[in-house]
Amino acid sequence: MVDMMSALRPEARQAPESGIVEVVNFARERDDLIPLWVGEGDLPTPDFIRAAAEASLEKGETFYTYQRGIPALREALARYHHRHFGRDWGAERYFVTGSGMQAIQLAVQAIAGAGDEVIYPSPAWPNFPAAIGIMGARAIPVPLDFSPNGWTLDLDRLFAAVTPRTRAIYLNSPSNPTGWMADKETLAAILAEARRRGLWIVADEVYSRFVEGGATRAPSFMDVAEPDDLILYVNTFSKNWAMTGWRIGWLSAPPALGQVVENLIQYSTSGVAQFMQRGAVAALDEGEEFVALQRRRASAGRAIIEGRLAATGRIRYAPPQGAFYLFFGVEGFSDSRDLAKRIVGETGVGLAPGSAFGEAGEGFLRLCFARSAEHLEAAAERLAGWIAR
Length: 389
Description:
Structural class: alpha/beta
Helix content: 25-40%
Strand content: 5-15%
Radius of gyration: 21 Å
């Protein structure tokens, strides 16, 4: 009899188990659980978005539709980027995907395969290197440097990681999990090097609207790029508009790649449900007040968590510049997986182990503070008490 596991592709067989899900499964049934381990808030999708999807269902818009996305949504994406990024690049460069994760998968499928390499700053969201590995390519981490003043990216180290096999640089800014954010000068330097070497850039700007200091968005490659640069932008409706369960995102690519991207969508999901896309149009065109609310809640949540934990004198962290996570270590503990399990077992507060984000994340924990003040006050009290003991 053929061994079932050995009959699989090695890339599928070796796809890593999520270190976050492992801890979630360890304690998801606790009655007193405060789940701060995954990257989502606790607000449901707002009524005006749900109403647009419901109206579409009432119209019977339940059939196959445009592979690239309905024209109304692609035009709404063009308007959104014109408003917030100042680039009037036209609707033809936007492609609707079945989540931000699928946008990443499509980008990877288009540019990397067996024997190729993609470099990326680490700690990083684990789904990206896993997507690279499943395609048979290698994800090459370049560690960020940590200090209490902030995480930093050494550009010389990043560029030194490029080899003849390198196909692309992946950059998530603001970063999940560290909160590090690239400034405009850093983005320009990376783009210049990518142009010089003929490399693609995968720009993950999922958290671009969650920034500290009063800005309405983070610096973007759109601030320094030309429309035909080798850049694939990936994004999602999940974070800004509380649509994590909808599984809808977008990919922005040079229009010359349009048929290629459409083909990749066709041979994976064959498009996104039209009623979901109608909700996404409402999110883009009517959702700025809700985005502002999300930003205020995250900022208030950060203040609650950071203030209480820092007061223990027993944590190490760098104040996040963006996104909505506190990435911190606890004095005397180095195994983040065991620490996350111990904390949730003894306090009921669910945190993600830093090791889930790569070797550079070991010794840290990730806490999502895009939650209600009530939950965060309770979590902070439990955690501060546990750390102090």
